[in-house]
Amino acid sequence: MDFLYAIFTVIATVPLLLLICFFALLVKIFTAKSIRNSNYPPVAGTVLSLLINFNRIYDYLTEVAGKHQTFRLLAEDQSEIYTTEARNIEHILKTSFDKYNKGQYLQGITNDLLGQGIFVVNGANWRQQRKLASVEFSTRMLRDFSCNIFRKNAVKLIRTVSQLSLSADIFDIQELLMRYSLDSIFEVGFGTDLNTMESDAAGSSFIKAFDDATSLIHWRYIDPTWKVQRLLNIGFEASLAKNIKYIHAFVQQVISKKRQQMEIQQNSDKEDILSRFLIESKKDPEKMNDEYLRDIILNFILAGKDTTANTLSWFFYMLCKNPLVQEKIVQEITETIPGNSIDEFVANTTDDTFEKMHYLHAALSETLRLYPAVPVVSFHLTKYVFSKLYLNINNVMRVFCKDGRCAEAHDILPDGYRVRKGDNVYYIAYAMGRMTNIWGDDAKDFKPERWLSNGIFQPESPFKFIAFHAGPRICLGKDFAYRQMKIVSVGLLRYFKFKLADEKQAVMYKPTFTLHVNGGLHLLAISRPD
Question: Which label site among 190, 351, 367, 443 has the fewest CB atoms less than 10 Å from its CB?
Fold first, then answer.
């Protein structure tokens, strides 16, 4: 009986302890934050409100940003500052770039998979990788090589959709686009053709392992026990370790194979990115070893696998919802790009032809404005190493549709609000695209014409149109992304008219690392007359 009494006593005590901890947390959150001080951004709530609005997190932040262009959500030790003010973004990403830096928390979360790759490092490592990548992305050889890959895979994609059209099958275009983009980034980046669109090759196993690994890495942000699980090699961490081991072995095989090929073909052109990095590694073999090259590869995969596919998925969704825009693009295609057969037509999708297609560029930019495929970039302070519940909730939100930077010293933003050392500052790309003060009263409408003046595309400031980031960390692959999206979109639209499989079904995003269409985008493709 005494034993049972002791058990019941413990059970009865647990809710009380949880309640005490919760109130202690609230006291800590609201203490010493200058809540009523107008020198600091207005307080719109706490980080716990993000958990409550988890499934509609982007729209929640948009609603708050509609009331306050810059606002705070309170956390335990600091304020989380969110802004849609372009002046603030330019200040953080360009003018005062050296004052704001990535912290160590993100690196601790992602290091197992991404290591010391360009998207998770700072300082000398970032500058070196940025410089090397910048040189390679600017070469004509890489541009021509990548375009040939994009066109080759676009032909495969068109023929796959053709079969689905003939049988009147409903299909998930997001899934097809994911396979297309992975095949393309692997061949452009590493000279390896996974061919996931046509066969169940070894690449399919890599896709599954990589997708599972990134998903499990994501769960580290909300699971306060992940470090214990990793130490004991149990639970999700055991699965993650298994996937990472497979991924690393796969990539190591790619590197080794590429080294052997380069030794045999010493005088051949080194077109893919890995080959060119391998050449560079000979200058500093101790630092640029196979592990370092592996990290570079995995970071490029992360950057190129989902972002283009997601943007194109939202693009086709917008065209289905706006059939007149779809037909305007088709008219521009037929007036600009000749070609009878699929191969001939796709071969004519060149930079010269795309320069004449201002409406297509406007429609893609309009898609990115409303549905920015922002890479997962999270900035944390080193001190966030303890797995507390609210911190893990908060850290999850930092990977959603926004970039954050941690203030390393006290600062004043251009809109007059102060930032304390230890505060984190985020810009919300999804919300910015919907701000009437930035884009006008029709900000929420899909309107490619807003980008045109007398039929000519007019670019916007990168601190206003933030889909590709800005300042020193602006996306190196911006032109490559546009080129790839244009090749795919004109190829598909030239031969098919697209409709939603279910016009009444609500299409929503999935709150994850990139802006996926939740559950995929299911379409019908109707063949257009030749």
Answer: 351
CB 217 within 8 A of CB 109: yes
Q: Which residues of 71-102 are buried (b: 16+ CB within 10 A; e: fewer)?
A: bbbbbbbbbbbbbbbbebbbbbbeebeebbeb
Average pLDDT, the chain: 81
Q: Count CB atoms within 10 A of the CB of residue 189.
A: 22
Token pair for residue 169? 């099958």
Task: Quote the CA–CA distance of 286 and 282 in Å, as a whole number.
Answer: 9
Of 120, 59, 484, the residue nearest 299 (C-alpha): 120
Q: Largest Cα–Cα distance in the chain?
A: 88
* Residue 397 CB contacts under 8 Å (≥ 6 apart), including other chains: 47, 50, 57
Q: pLDDT by residue (tens digit) across 323-377? A: 999 999 999 999 999 988 999 999 999 999 999 999 999 999 999 999 997 633 3
User: Which tokens sit at 488?
Assistant: 């795919």
Cross-strand partners of 403:
427
Residue length, the chain? Answer: 530
The pLDDT of residue 195: 84
Give the C-alpha separation, 147 to 184, whole Å: 10
| Helix, strand, or coil (residue 166) | helix
Is the CA virtual torsion 512, 516, 517, 518 positive or negative? negative
The pLDDT of 214-221, averaged and rounded, is 71
Question: What's the mean pLDDT in 479-502?
Answer: 96
Domain edges within the chain: 1-31
